[in-house]
Amino acid sequence: MKLNSIFIIGCRDAMPLLLGLLPFAILTGVSAIQAGMTPFVAQMSSILLMSGASQIAAASLMVTGAAPLVVIITHIAINFRYSIYSAGLSQLKLHFTPASKIAAAHVLIDQTYALTFLRCQDHKMTAKEKSIYYFGTAFPMWLVWQLGTAVGIFGGSLIPAHWDLKFAITLCFISLLIPMIKNRSIVVATCFAGITSSFTCHWSYNLGFLFSIIVGVLAGGTYTKASLRRESLELL
């Protein structure tokens, strides 16, 4: 298959997720302005960071007058999941040059990781094809994110107050989670992480989010090891 065709397939697969990403981006732009950022700084933060959850959390902390160090730590804590995504992508053995690796890291978000992971699991692809598909999913995501935040920055005041854009965040992550639940280990990890997050959602600086991820990973890994051990005993 031609590489440009694979890029187009990546763009096509990303299209359904754009419906949830757009209101998320608009909300991020609105939050930045409410935190006191100038339009230029707000848009640059979106271009440089491209991480809605941490951008909104940082904006909320800025509104309450939190110290800069607290804002930075919160950013790091929320975005820690990207190190997990990076480890997952390394297992897929994508092909990146030094320059494209930097670009790939910049556009890595939950949606691009999920789509690439699912595609590589279901289709046999070369390392080059995998990397082209990855950028195919990332391009429309990046473009819509920048346009959406710009709408929130410059037109947020025109959005009706009764439009609950915050629900778009939940929709984004639900749409990513469901297709990835393919075996019992993932079910166990999902359940443990979800239950844990319901008890830790009130933790300061969103540390409950990070703790829930760790619990989910440990639970899924423990279940997998136990299953493999049980299968090996049955073969004896």
UniProtKB/TrEMBL annotation:
Protein name: Branched-chain amino acid transport protein AzlC
GO (cellular component) term, any one: plasma membrane
Membrane topology, as annotated: Multi-pass membrane protein
Main location: membrane
Record family assignment: Belongs to the AzlC family.
Record localization: Cell membrane
One GO-annotated biological process of the protein: L-valine transmembrane transport
Signal peptide: none
Pfam family, one: AzlC
Transmembrane stretches, start-end: 56-78, 132-155, 161-179, 211-228
Keyword set, alphabetical order: Cell membrane, Membrane, Transmembrane, Transmembrane helix, Transport
